[in-house]
Amino acid sequence: MDQLLSVKMDKSSEVIDHRIHDLSSQKQSGLAWVKDHVEQINHWVNSDGFALLRGLNIVSSNQFSTILETIFGEPLSQYVYRSSPRTAMRNNIYTTTEYHADQVILQHNENAYSNRWPMRMGFFCVVPAKTGGDTPLADSRVVYQNIPESIRDKFERLGVMYVRNYGEIDLPWQEVFQTQSKVEVEAYCKENDIEFEWQGDRLQTRQHRPAVATHPQTGEKVWFNQAHLFHSSSIDGQMPDLMRASIGEQRLPRNAYYGDGSPIADEDIQVINQVYKDATFSYQWQRNDILLLDNMLYTHGRQAYSGVRKVLVGMAKIVS
User: Fold this and answer.
1) Are residues 235 and 287 in the same domain?
2) Number of domains into which the chain is organized
3) For the stretch 195-224, what's the b/e string if a residue is b when 16 or more beta carbons lie within 10 angstroms of its beta carbon?
4) What is the pLDDT of residues 30-89, one digit of tens each?
5) Whether residue 117 is found in the same domain as residue 197
6) This protein's superkingdom (predicted)?
7) Do 130 and 53 share a domain, yes or no?
8) What is the domain range of residue 62?
9) Tens-digit pLDDT profile for residues 235-254
10) Are residues 86 and 190 in the same domain?
């Protein structure tokens, strides 16, 4: 029987120790233990939406890749149509977003801005930060339920339009689409219902997506979009106003509108961010931790941190 650690939610006394599994007493290698317990591990994730495996003996990113493929039952997916900088390792393992250590990454479901996203994600802590650097989680069902109806209903009715301008401030299109070919970019956009416009070598895309999704297994509604991340008000300080003045609204690196093109009020984004904040909890990373997520049921983010931090990620079970 696995030993279980008691961990408390931030700002809450609710014990959720059944989701963190201390396997440090296992004599098998990490991979051998996983192979013998695949069904149990998937039951944990299916039941709870996530599971933290602690204390497994893992020696490399290649072994982590094999562990994820064993659990997920298929090869890991390549990360195309990216929204943030990261480094590709072998076997479709990636570093987590490489923003500066003092930046907080807001809660989000991976690729919720796209019409293709992974149902399963796995994170591997190679080196925990000296301070901070946790990967907070939030239940997307709780977020959906707690957003005021007046805001939620409008999003649910109209959806979200994501606008991106690549290259000058945002990632270059070559990195986002993982190609140097405009023809391949256009083919990807057409296949994935992304509107595109070239202005010389500059690319702008627009994509319309629902703001709410229904989980295919549980049938529950989840808040499943990145409007709060793409919205220009998410840029720090006075930068949105300065950028609008210098390059214009249409050239902002990214922005989010309602699906009909009408603007989303800054105040509504602030409300959504507060709902996420209230629903968020986290675990302090330990070396060799593996965090497995149902990407529709739970969001993830990143705390600011100090020192060296290295967390890897792999994704699988792509749906649309």
Assistant:
1) no
2) 2
3) ebeeeeeebbbebbbbbbbebeeeeebbbb
4) 899 999 999 999 999 999 999 999 999 888 899 999 999 999 999 999 988 877 878 888
5) no
6) Bacteria
7) yes
8) 3-136+282-319
9) 654 445 555 445 556 678 88
10) no
In this prediction, residue 242 carries a pLDDT of 53
Assign 313 a pLDDT band (cuts: 50, 70, 90). very high
The CATH number for 214's domain is: 3.60.130.10
